[in-house]
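TICKET: design request
STATUS: open
ATTACHED STRUCTURE:
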């Protein structure tokens, strides 16, 4: 599972963590190979937990108000206070919709975090709802939202797994990889390439874990291939990191 905010240790699935008050969604992907750690995600046997009510934004709220709420949500999430994290993200969502617009990257990223938070609580139907809303925004953003779209489709698969919709989960993972592979060809900068590779590696590992649990047909063989691709990308990212070697952008391209 991929997050755009805080990190947490839970279960045995990989997702991204990022600085709590980051205003750039793609900072999450950069942060992952600079030192983000965490595990999370849906298993094939969900459990349900409690939910919280949505707070209201008032007329004096500004983008700074939303950013403060995002920071609070991140801290609550780190501490495992999911209901409080949800309330803070919902407040940020209300404000972002007013001051940034309903189709803004800020709204998209907040919906993504709400979807992940619901998945972590076992509320996979709500997770699916929030994630699909974020996906629609990402699609409207065109190529500028493709990396986020790939991440969102991977997270949508988590919601499907939790609901036992395994065929839909498979389709969502496969679509996520197609989107990310298409985006890879359009990457112009080293940062774009690294962001794409980080997200692709996470989706590959999550898809592989899903297949290893499902074990239908040639699932295990496909899972092995996905793991190998993910490990290859991991080695590339280590070489590109500040503590590793230097690669040209072309060295990262076309090696999914």
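STATUS: resolved
RESOLUTION: sequence designed for all positions
ATTACHED SEQUENCE:
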């Amino acid at each position: 599972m991929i997050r755009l905010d805080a990190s947490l240790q839970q279960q045995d699935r990989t997702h991204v963590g990022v600085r709590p008050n980051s205003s750039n969604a793609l900072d999450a992907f950069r942060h992952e190979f600079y030192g983000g750690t965490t595990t999370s995600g849906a298993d094939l046997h969900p459990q349900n937990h409690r939910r919280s009510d949505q707070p209201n934004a008032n007329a004096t709220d500004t983008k700074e108000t939303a950013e403060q709420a995002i920071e609070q949500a991140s801290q609550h999430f780190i501490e495992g206070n999911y209901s409080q994290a949800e309330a803070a993200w919902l407040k940020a969502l209300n404000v972002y919709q007013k001051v940034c617009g309903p189709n803004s990257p800020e709204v998209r990223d907040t919906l993504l975090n709400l979807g992940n938070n619901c998945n972590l609580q076992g509320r996979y139907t709500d997770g699916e709802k929030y994630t699909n809303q974020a996906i629609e925004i990402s699609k409207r953003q065109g190529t500028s939202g493709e990396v986020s779209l790939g991440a969102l489709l991977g997270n949508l698969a988590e919601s499907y797994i939790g609901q036992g919709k395994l065929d839909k989960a498979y389709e969502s993972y496969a679509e996520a990889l197609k989107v990310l592979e298409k985006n890879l060809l359009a990457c112009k900068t080293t940062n774009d390439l690294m962001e794409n590779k980080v997200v692709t590696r996470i989706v590959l590992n999550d898809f592989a874990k899903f297949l290893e649990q499902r074990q239908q047909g040639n699932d295990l063989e496909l899972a092995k291939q996905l793991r190998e691709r993910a490990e290859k990308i991991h080695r590339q990212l280590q070489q590109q990191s500040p503590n590793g070697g230097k690669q040209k952008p072309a060295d990262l391209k076309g090696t999914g």
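CLOSING REMARK: The first helix runs from residue 27 to 34. The chain has one domain: 27-252.
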